[in-house]
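Annotated sample (chain length 268).
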Amino acid sequence: MRDAAVGFHCPTCVAEGAKATRSGRTPYGGLRPGNAGLTTKVLIGINAAVWLLILATGGAASRLVDLLALRANGLCAVRDRGFDVAESACAGAGQWLPGVSDGAYWQLLTSAFTHVQVMHIAFNMLALWVLGPQLELAVGRLRFLALYLLSGLAGSALVYWAAAPFQSTVGASGAVFGLMGALLVLSVKVKANPQQILFWIGLNFVFTFLFPNVSWQGHLGGFLGGALIAAVLVYAPRPRRTFWQSLGLAAIAVVLLAAVVARTVALT
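Output written by the structure step:
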């Protein structure tokens, strides 16, 4: 990896990107960004702004965490009695914590921009700072944004299916692991040596299963989603490439939304 103005760049990816300089296009059809770190900076800024709002409104006890965190089923925080799964228990006695199956579908994306602990956001944003610019340089700004958001949604979908129904999940880790999966696919496409990337990915998965209270569902879902999304972007046929990329991304989005709907039906 080489130091860059923003984050770090894979030498092989930079060489591949240089081929498209004259055309103003990235190697995979996107418009070549003048500032390859702009989208990364905006995403980091959004995450930081949400975190500061949470800190300013009570930290872990903030109502924003209740609304933005991903929770499959809603439950009632009843004063002096802990929690109750019945919404009726909140009548005059507690506060309802909504879940996706109750209609809080926004949590599937907002949870990916929500952090409480400083070390959590610090590690996620550092990884985004390292991975984001080189991927944006390789695929273009809009495709990179689609990669990030759909990876986050893929992580949330697996959390929705596999995590405990009343457990809350926050963090950009699903989207970040999606970028790791995308970088691995890109390195294979350009025939770079993937050993360093595989080592880094393996180390992060070891941490995922080694430490408690880490969402392996979000990490695994984001990684698999990011790898699939990147495969659509970099292996799309050159003739009508934008059409095939759009069709592939739309198909992935439909499958993820169908999985969310199926889980909602099962829970309700």
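Annotation: The chain has a mean pLDDT of 89.
Annotation: The CA atoms of residues 151 and 215 lie 15 Å apart.
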